[in-house]
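Supplementary material to the annual report.
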Amino acid sequence: MLNIDCPWCGKRHETEFRYGGEAHIARPEDPAALDDTEWAEFLFMRKNTKGYFAERWLHNNGCRRWFNVIRNTVTHEIVGSYKMGETPPKLPKSAGGAK
Amino acid sequence: MTQHFRTASGGRIDRKKAINFTFNGQKYIGYEGDTLASALLANGVHLLGRSFKYHRPRGIVAAGAEEPNSMVQLGEGATTEPNIRATQISLYEGLTARSVNVWPTVEFDISAINGLFAKIMTAGFYNKTFMWPRAMWMKLYEPVIRRAAGWGKAPTTGDPDIYDHMHLHVEVMVVGGGPAGLMAALAAGRARARVLLVDEQGEFGGSLLSKKRQIGAKDEMAWIADMLAELEAMPDVTLLSRSTAFGYYDHNYLCVLEQKTDHLPAAERKGKVRQRVWHVRAGQVVLATGAHERPLVFADNDRPGIMLASSVQTYVNRYGVLPGKKMVLFTNNDAAYETAIDLQAAGGDIVAIVDSRAEPSGELVEAVRALDIEILAGYAITGTRGGKRVESVQVRAIQKGAKVYTSAARRIDCDLVAMSGGWSPVVHLFSQSQGQLEYDEEKACFLPGTKRQAQQVAGALAGEFTLKECLAGGYKAGADAARATGFTPKRKPAAPEIDEPALGGIEPFWVVPGARPIGEGMAKHFVDLQNDTTAADIELAVREGFESVEHIKRYTLTGFGTDQGKTSNINALAILSGILDKPIPKVGTTTFRPPYTPVSYGALAGRNLGDWSDPVRVTSIHDWHVENGALFENVGQWKRPWYFPKTGETMQDALNRECLAVRNGVGVLDASTLGKIDIRGPDAAEFLNRIYTNAWAKLGIRRVRYGLMCHEDGMVFDDGTTARLAEDRFLMTTTTGGAAGVLDWLEEYLQTEWPELRVYCTSVTEQWAAVSITGPTAGALLKKLAPEMDLSPESFPFLSFKEGVVAGIDARIFRISFTGELTYEINVPWACGLALWEAVMAAGAEFDITPYGTESMHILRAEKGFIIVGQETDGTTTPQDLGMDWIVSKKKPDFIGKRSYNRSDTARADRKQLVGLLTEAPDEVLPEGAQLVFDANAPKPMPMMGHVTSSYYSATLGRSIALALVKGGHEKKGQKIFAPLLDRTVTAEIVDPVFYDKEGERLNG
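Predicted assembly:
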C-alpha cells in the first residue's frame, strides 16, 4: 500500500486517496477551436509511462484536495508531491532500486 | 499408548505436563511444548495422509512452515480448519485432528489404486483427459475429481471466533526471531528506535532452538533468554511470537497474522480474540527469515519416514523425539552430518551416510568418521522400499553427470531417511517486496540481490549460514536500519566466542539418476510432494513444448497448494535448467506472492462482518418505514423503502395501489436520500453554467431548474434540480447513488481547471430531510399543513420554491415533479424529518394519503418518460440520444461535454436512442435488459438493435410500458421491434417515451 505525501496533511495510506490519472493535462481554453483529432487527443490519449510519472491524486477521505505526485511506475518510489499549479520537482535520471 | 520414540531426556518440552490428544480417532499423549507433528512422531506415527493425485502414503517431512505433506483437518464443527500443517500446530489438551484426502481411512485408501495408473496421470492429465464432452464436466468429472483430490473440508457453519486488526508504525521492523533477527532487534532497540520483532513460532530463537551451540559463556538457551530479557525491558520494542509476516506490500507496509489462542485448549479460548492481523508501516525492514532445507530428488523419495535432515535434528534436539531408530542420511553437503551426530547422541543408530560428493571432507565429516559411522562417498539412494513407512533403501555408486546408473545396488535396512539437498534462503517476503534474486553458484541457492524498498537482509536469508555470520550480520542490519531512520546505533558489541563446526562446501545434486533416463520408465522422483509432481512430469512438460518456468509451474502444478512449493520450487527449476541445458539464473524463478502461509478469511475480515461489513445509511424517517411494513431496496449505501405492501397484497397489487393513489389522490415519498450540495460564492452561477448543459446565469432567485451533467466526452453522468437560494448561492440535488461522485467532480474542476472561480461546495445531503407529496390533492394537503402559505400558481409556480412553516417546522418547499403530478417536496432539518412525515400522514388521512417507495416512483416517472441515470444511460448516452436536445444550450460558448457533441461518433445517425415500447400483448412485461432485433427470423447471431432499459406494468394505463435504447430509434417510431427471449419472442411497437399526459396538464393539480 502506497504511503502518499499529501502536501496539506503529510503521509497517509493509499486507502485515503483516489487516483486521478496523468497530471498536467489542461482542459483546452477554447475546445471549439480544436479539430476532432486534437480534441480526441485531449479526451482519450494518456501516457503509459514505465518509470517516473507525474500523476494526480485526490485526498478524498482526508482534506479533499487534489495534488500531483511523481511516482516511479516500476518501483512505486514516490519522489515528491506538489500542489496544483506548482512546478513539478526535477525527475531523477536513473530508474530503479532504493539506496 | 506410550511414547516409544521419546528420548530419555532433553528437548524444550515439559515432561511433567502430559497432554492428551486424538488423531484419526486414536488417543495419544504428548507433552507441553510439542507440535502435533512431534507428538505423533514420539508415538511412532509417521503415516499422516495420502498424496494429492496418486494417494500414496505420506508422512511428516519437515518441522515448520515448509512442510508439504502433513496437512490435517484440525478440530470439529464450526471451528474446524482444513489443511493445517501438523508441524505448525502447537499441541493443546483435547486437540483432535484427522487426515485429509483419505477415504475411507488413511490406512486403507481406495484411491491408492490411482498409483497403478500413474503412467497416464502425468502433467496435464486432467486437462488432457477430461476435455470432452463439455457437459460431462459438471455431472461426472468434476464431482469425481473433487472427491478424489479434495483436501480438507471447510466448516459448514459460520465462524464463531473473534478476529481483529491493529495498525502500527515503527522505525524498524524485524521479521524472523532467529539469531540474526534477535541481534538486529537488539541493535535497533539499543539505538532507541521503535522496533517490532515478529516470529511465526511460539518461541524466539529460530534455528538455535534445534542446535546445540556455546555462545561465549552461555549455551544457546541462556543466550536467547538474555537477549529476550534485554529486548523486553526496552519500552519501544514490541515482540510478537506466533506471528507470521505473510505479506510485504509497497512502501514497507507489511501484514502480520498473530495467532493468539490457537495453542490453547478450547476452554481457555472463550471470549478471546483468536487471531489478529497487524498492519505495519515501517521506516526500515530487516528481513531475517532464514532458510529452508531442500529435499533430494530420488526414486520413491516420498515414503513416510523420509525427512529433511535438519528437521530430524529439530525433532531430536528441540522436541526430544527420535523420528527413527535406524537412520540413513543422504546428503550433498556436510552441514547435514550434524544430524547424524545428534541422533546418535540421543540414542538412535546411524546405519550409513550416503554422500553424493566423491570426497567429502571437513570438521563434521571427521567427527562422524570418529564415531565409526559408515560413509558411502560418491553414492546416492536410487530407490526405497516400504509400505506405510520406509523399510530399506537401495544405494549405488554414481558417476558424476550420469543420466542413468550402471553400478550394482546395495540394500540397507532402515526406518528413517534424513536427506539434505542444501539450503534455500526464505526469499518470499524479499521477493514480494519486488527485490530481485541472484543465483549464488557456490552456495547453490538464490540470494537477495537488488532491493526495491527501504530494507536490510540478514542471517541465512543473506547466505550467512554460520551462527557467527548470523550474529554479526544481524547486528549490522539492525544498526544500519536504525541509522537510516535517523537514530545513532551503539557501538557494536564484541563478537563472542562461538563453538560451531566449520562447514565444507555443497555440491549441487538436483536429481538422482535412475535405471532409465528421467521421463522413461515408472520410477517416481518426487519434486513437489504436495502436488505429486515428479521430475518426469517436468521432463514431459518440456517435451510438450513448455519452456517458461511460469508455464511449467502451471502445467505441472509445481509450487501450488498450501505450501506454495517452499521445498520444491528450487529443485524444480534446477531440474528444468538441466533439461533445457540452460544455467539456473537464465531459467529464472516463479513469482512469490502473498500470503507466505495461508490466512483464514475470518482474520482478513476482522470485525468487518454483518452490519459492520459496509456502512448502512438510513433516513430520519426510516423507523416509520420499518414499522409500517416497508420492504427496502439498497441504493448505494442507503436503505430506501421499495414498496409498502398491505396484508395479502402481492408486490404488483401494492404497486398498482400506490401508483393509482398518486394519480387520483395523493402519495408521499421519503426523498431524503437525494444528494444535496450547497454551492456558494460570487462565481457560483458561472460555475453551474460550465458544469450543466443548459443556461444558469439568468435563473431567478427562488427559482429551480432541471439540469443534466455530462463528462467531457459528452456522456450523461448525473441529473437533478438545482435551486437558486440567493445571488451567490445554489442548492444542487443529485441522484441518490451519484452524490459523492458529483461532489468529487465539482471539486475536481474547481481545484484543477478553474481555481480562479470563487466557489465553495458543501455536501448537505444529511442536513435536509425531504418529504415529497404528489398527486391531484397534494395542494389541498399542503394548505392544511401550511395555512399561511400562498399556494396559488401565480405566487408559487412550477419550478420555484418557498420558505415557510409546514406543520410547525421551518421548511423549504420545492415545486418540482418526478411523477408528472402536482408535487411539493418539503425539506426540513434532518432531525425534524420524522415529525414532518407523521404530520403529513395525519393531515393526509382525510385524503387517503398513500406512502409509496422507489418501485412506484420508477413506474410513475417511466409513465412520463423521465430518465433515470444509470438505467436509461450507461456512460455511452448523450443528451441527444435521450431526446433531450432541449436542455443542451446552443448559445453558451462552452460547457463540459459541448465539444464532444460534434465528434463524428456522437453525431452518428444509428446511435442508440431512447424510445418507448408498447408490447403487442398489453399484459406482457418485457424483462429489463432484453435485447431487441428488427428481424426475429434473422440467422444467428442476430444483429442486436438495442435493449430494454426500463419495463413495468402501469396500472394508470392498464397495460405494460417499457423504455428502450434502440439504434436510430427516434426515426423508427411506429415500427415493430422484437425481443427474442429464451422461450418466446415478444413483439412491440416503438413509440414516444412519454406515455402519460404528454401535454403536462396535470402538473398544476
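Residues 509-587 of chain B form a domain with the Arc Repressor Mutant, subunit A fold (CATH 1.10.10.1100).
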